[in-house]
Known about the structure:
The structure is a homodimer. By secondary structure, chain A is mainly α. Chain A has 2 domains: about 1-85, Orthogonal Bundle (Arc Repressor Mutant, subunit A), CATH 1.10.10; about 95-170. The first copy, chain A, is about 60% helix and about 5% strand. In chain A, strand 1 (about 55-60) and strand 2 form a beta hairpin. Chain A is elongated, with a radius of gyration of 22 Å. Chain A starts with a helix and ends in a 14-residue tail after the last helix. In chain A, about 35% of the residues are buried. The model of chain A is unreliable at about 175-184 (pLDDT under 50).
Amino acid sequence: MSHRYLVLGLLSERPMTGYEIRKRVCETMSMIASPSYGAVYPILHRLLREGAVTMDVVEQEGRPAKKVYAITESGRDDFATWLRKPAAADQVRREFLVKVLFARDLDPEELTAHLRDRQAEVEGQIAVLEAVCSEPEAQANGYHALVIDYALALYRAELCWLDRVAQAVRAGELLQDALLLDPD
Amino acid sequence: MSHRYLVLGLLSERPMTGYEIRKRVCETMSMIASPSYGAVYPILHRLLREGAVTMDVVEQEGRPAKKVYAITESGRDDFATWLRKPAAADQVRREFLVKVLFARDLDPEELTAHLRDRQAEVEGQIAVLEAVCSEPEAQANGYHALVIDYALALYRAELCWLDRVAQAVRAGELLQDALLLDPD
DNA sequence: GTAAGCATGTAACTTGTTACATGATTAG
DNA sequence: CTAATCATGTAACAAGTTACATGCTTAC
């Protein structure tokens, strides 16, 4: 459901094509979503059917014609209503965590490998976010910057956790049952 | 996909019924997942069909008969293979974040309300995690405790972020475009 | 008596991914 | 000549939710 409103929100800034929407989301909002074309186009078709957007075919030479979608008053109302409704609660839900949960079945080296993989992934995400941060588009929109800051804060906290756990594994503190982690 | 392996992982500890599995996940692993019956039962049927588990009908007086599922060697192999594969990357993806992204369309009080809602939600989650932490089951399993600690670390980081943003809103630092948030 | 817990299940629906098809231009 | 970028779309599939149906027991 929130992909729909992400699309509508972006169109409330300016008219765009499906291709453009997807590109913008994947490049500057990848921490929130990375929808495929198979998600974006059907959403636009549906919004059009419902009258939340209008569509304008723009011929281009050289390139294929593009369909520019623009939000309508009714679309703005729909978006405004959604924006004011309380957000649904959602989980942390990472495949990575399920693997940690059953790490008693892994050798310490295998667990360490998972931790290292995740660390590389998180560091990569942080690098992407910092790059997005320094772009003019993100700096112009305080709320976009806010969301990036949120993701950075969580990723940095995760990095700390990964470090602590990697140390505990190295120290052999995590055996079959084990102790660990002073509560703060 | 990871629900399947969560089920298989739990069954690798001891035989259980679908009802039990769901209850245990929802009560002690709610930060990772809260599958509905409509998710759990079909997974078990499929695992049975594939030979990853066996099923034993146990009649009970008073209560309806229950179906106890136990993991097979083939199921253990399947699980062990999955456990060693690198985990898929996943996003932060919170509906809440999409609302923040478009908060320029909200009055400061409306944004504050969203922030407060989220704060209450996060504090509730932390309370649940701390309660689970103190149970003997979680303390006996170091890896379970580890996952709880992960979730706590992220939730606490989020709480800090929420605080910072709430303050910025109160101070009127978040207008149409706005500055904000010294990079660390 | 009524709500909650035990216990199983299915059907309809939603939301999304992957993989495919099409086809032109530009940069290496 | 090959890959990437622009640009649209569909079909098959995967994974899950919600809502329903059933039915018994125990605690308030």
